[in-house]
Amino acid sequence: MARILMIVAHPDDIDFGSGGSVARWVAEGNTVDYCICTDGDAGGFDEAVGRIEMAELRRKEQRAAADVLGAGEIDWLGHPDGRLYVTHDLRRDISRSIRRRRPDRVVIQSPTRNLRSTYGSHPDHIAAGEAAMCAVYPDARNPFAHPELLADEGLEAWTVGETYVANPGDGADVYLDVTDYMDRKVEALRAHESQTGHMTDLAERMQMWGYSQAKAAGLCDDGTPPAERRFAEGFLVLDTK
């Protein structure tokens, strides 16, 4: 069994990108916690909802979604949505979460822009991915980095054994079959009502994306009948010991 920490920019990023994997990991006996860099206050579609109210709403939605998948604690870093940069403070805050949760594995967003995917290259996602990589190495493992974490909070240095980069485009080298968990992934996404309430085709979107990943993994092909299709989520796996 492993301790896994998911590090992302926004509420709902985990559920869109890796919700099936989280459900599978929990079912297999692993512990999965979240580190979310912003409250998602720049999200949503209702202009009548104030930004403070939106942040509170999205925290509640993320907690509900995490409960659907069986995830544990959520570390909220509170950085501004839409203005996430790779700063010393962000690196420190992610390092704090790593030292607190002491994960065997972290799952991060890609720190590089995918020129073939506009939606897959949100600048907040890229910043969260790069800051997380900086926290994995060298910050969280270095007892002399962010000394206040040890001096003021008693958080000892921690080395993360492996890092999974979620949705790396064509660079995935590990695919998880999440067919049995697709319904729970969609249910978790529906908990983010402020973001997905308008998506009447949410399940179909997720199934088509999961099907494309399953084809890349060789779990099925273009000729597979709809009733027999598999769904997958892909990761680039890095040895960060």
From TrEMBL:
The keyword Hydrolase applies. It is an enzyme of class 3 (hydrolase). One of its GO terms (molecular function) is hydrolase activity. The keyword Isomerase does not apply. Keywords: Hydrolase, Zinc. It comes from the Bacteria. Its EC number is 3.5.1.-. Signal peptide: none annotated. PANTHER family: LMBE FAMILY PROTEIN (PTHR12993:SF28), N-ACETYLGLUCOSAMINYL-PHOSPHATIDYLINOSITOL DE-N-ACETYLASE-RELATED (PTHR12993). This is PIG-L deacetylase family protein.
